[in-house]
């Protein structure tokens, strides 16, 4: 699965993202709208991750959607 699919079907994946990152609000998830850069930025902001770690976390989450 790629990020274009996630963006297109964000409403379906938003609940899974909410479970993974409980600190993200519904409004923040609406703004993220499946965009990898926005998701990584919010993960970085809310969890204090480095940019690289936040991007890795987003990628791992995406890969786990496939399983």
Automatic annotation (TrEMBL):
Residues 4-55 form the CsbD-like domain. SUPFAM superfamilies: Hypothetical protein YjbJ. Coiled coil: none annotated. Pfam families: CsbD (PF05532). Belongs to the UPF0337 (CsbD) family. This is Uncharacterized protein YjbJ (UPF0337 family). It comes from Marinicella litoralis.
């Amino acid at each position: 699965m790629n990020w274009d699919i996630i963006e297109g079907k964000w409403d379906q994946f938003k609940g899974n993202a909410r479970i993974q990152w409980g600190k993200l609000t519904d409004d923040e998830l609406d703004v993220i709208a499946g965009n990898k850069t926005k998701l990584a930025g919010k993960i970085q902001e809310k969890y204090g991750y480095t940019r690289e770690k936040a991007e890795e976390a987003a990628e791992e989450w995406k890969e786990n959607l496939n399983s």
